[in-house]
Every structure is written in C-alpha cells, then in structure tokens.
Amino acid sequence: MSENFDYLLKIIVVGDGGVGKTAIAVRFAEGVFREDYKMTIGVDFSIRLIDIPINDEVRKVKWQIWDLGGQERFSYTRPLYYKGAVGGLLVFDLTDRISFDHLDRWFAEVEKSCVSIPLLLIGNKADLPGRQVDREEGEALARSRNSIYYESSAKSGQSINAIFEKLGKIIIMKQEGLIEQEEVSEEQQKHKENIDQYMTLALQANNAITEGKYQDALRLLKEAYKYASKIEYDDGKKWIEEQTQHILQVLKRQKS
Ligand code: G3D
Ligand code: MG
After folding, report:
1. 66-70, 138-142, 150-154, 228-232: which has the minimum mean pLDDT?
2. Domain edge (last residue) among 122, 147, 175
3. Which range of residues forms the domain containing residue 39?
4. pLDDT band per the 50, 70, 90 thresholds, residue 203
5. Residue ranges with CB less than 5 Å from ion ligand 2
6. Do 168 and 197 belong to one domain?
7. Residues 57 and 92 in one domain
C-alpha cells in the first residue's frame, strides 16, 4: 500500500476496561475479530489508510488509533495519551450498564485534556443478547453532548467502518474550514498549556528517578505538583506524593 496520505489523524478510544476498545481498533485496522487478544499492556496503536470522499474529492487518511492499553484506571501518564488527538470514540458495552453510567467521567476527562475535539459515542457488543442500555438512552446522551451515537459490534463488524468514516469526515471538514470550528476560550487554552507543563515535568522527573538523580527528581516533582494542582489532576498529585515518599526513603537509607 502506498504511504502517501493527505491527513495523519490521531484518535483516541476511551471507555471502561472490557467494553471492546481494542476489539474495535483491531477490527477496523485489520478487518478481523480476534477472540484471543490479550489485555493490551501500555499504550498501543493501530494504523490504517482509508480514502474519505468529501464533496466528490477523495482525502487519503492515515489513522493512528490509540488504544488505552489496559490502563483504564487512572495513571499519571494519562494526559500523554490524549496529547495531539484530533478526535475520539467514547465506548461503552451495551450489555454492561455500569460502563454506560461511567461515560460522564470519560467525557469530562477527555474534555479536560483536549480542547474540543469531536467525539462519537459508541454502544458496542450489539451482537450480544441481554442489552442493558436502550438505543434511545444512547441517542439522548449523544444529543446532550453534541455527539453522534452508533451501535457497533467488533465481532460482526457492524458500523465499524461507518464510525471511522463519519469521524474522519467531521475532523477533516473542521480542518478545511468546511464546518465551523468551536471557539477555544483563553481559559481552555491556559488549561491545555498547564497540562503540557505537567506532562513535561512528570516525564523529566520519571527519567531522573530512573537515572538515580534524586535531587533533580525532587525538584521536578515539586514543580510538577504545582501544575497538577492547577489542572486538578488528583491522580497526578497522588503519583507525585508516592514518588516523593519513595525517594525520601531511599535517601534516608543511603545516609544511615
Ligand atoms: P477493552 O480494550 O475495552 O478493554 P477488549 O476491551 O477489546 O479487550 O474486549 C473485551 C472483551 O469483549 C473481549 O472478550 C472481546 O473479545 C469482547 N468483545 C469486544 N467487542 C465485542 C463485540 O462487539 N461483541 C462481542 N460479542 N464481544 C466483544 P474476552 O472474552 O477476551 O474478555
Ligand atoms: Mg484494550
């Protein structure tokens, strides 16, 4: 396949563990449903090139689909995952009510980290019996979030291509000015800058710890804490506290 493309689009797939995020990414990228894929470790991504026609003209799109690899529980690297994403899928499992009830949290987290990117709402596992969420509920939530609702099955392939085509169209039309961009407020912009600052410092601290440069690490952690507070990133703060305690213990042991 030719490596030429008009757009490289990084998108994120978000939602509770087990809802089928990896299955959707794999189904779309490889056209298969694997019964046996392991829980992904770390962040992973799938790639696929597709043509998207807009107003009779084809755009070649290279998708980079980021998959929350088994890290659905919050971790300090989470903002990294969102960085640079231009769109996303918020996925729940139609046979698991709790995964639907958690969507508010996922919406909030993505909106906090990414300045207004288009998000599609996906009720997955439509092939299974025992649905716990009605189509009307999914549609209502999507409407209230200015999103679009799809029901999919990574197993049968239902709606998978349609979802990516729709998302691609929205992203590209925005970028080409064919549909209006939402205004980004100064506050949102500032927030995003604070996230970037936090991330840079947390990663530097992490490297310093790995290299045993503990004084540097302490300084970086302290600085990172300020930004974690500004963005109200409690998991980041917790991580910093844990690392700081750990370093102080190591230093104490080294002294005695
Ligand atoms: P996650 O990445 O969101 O954590 P996975 O979820 O993609 O790992 O999927 C979790 C489980 O649901 C997997 O089963 C997977 O095969 C199954 N699954 C995902 N999508 C669908 C679907 O559309 N239909 C059906 N019937 N099953 C699906 P296991 O058994 O490996 O846990
Ligand atoms: Mg997964």
Report:
1. 66-70
2. 175
3. 7-175
4. confident
5. 21-22, 40
6. no
7. yes
Query: Does residue 40 sit in the same domain as residue 107?
Result: yes
Residue-wise pLDDT for 35-51, tens only, equals 555 444 455 567 888 89
CA quadruple 198, 67, 122, 179: dihedral sign: positive
Which pTM was predicted? 0.78
CA distance 94 to 19: 8
For the record, the structure tokens of 166 come out as 């729709």
| Residue 19 and residue 143 in one domain | yes
Q: Name the residue among 160, 170, 154 with its Cα closest to residue 61.
A: 170
Residue found under tokens 């799109």: 61
Determine which residue's CA is closest to atom 14 belonging to ligand 1.
35
Please give the pLDDT value at position 32.
64
First to last CA, the chain: 62
How many whole angstroms from 198 Cα to the centroid of ligand 1?
33
Q: Do 190 and 116 belong together in one domain?
A: no
Structural domains counted in the chain = 2
Q: From the CA of 39, how far away is ligand 2's center (Å)?
A: 5
Q: Which ligand is nearest the CA of 41, by number? A: 2
Ligand 1 atom at minimum distance from 158 CA: 23
For atom 32 of ligand 1, which residue has the closest CA? 18
Using the 3D structure, point to which of 154, 175, 196 is the last residue of a domain.
175
Nearest ligand, CA 68:
2
Query: Are residues 193 and 169 both part of a single domain?
Result: no
| Cα–Cα distance measured from residue 85 to residue 10, given in angstroms and rounded to the nearest whole number | 5
pLDDT 10s digits, 108-150: 888 877 668 999 999 999 999 999 999 999 999 999 999 999 9
Distance (Å, whole) CA 255 – CA 252? 5
pLDDT mean over 155-167? 96
Statement to judge: residues 236 and 150 lie in one domain: no
Residue 82 has pLDDT above 70, yes or no: yes
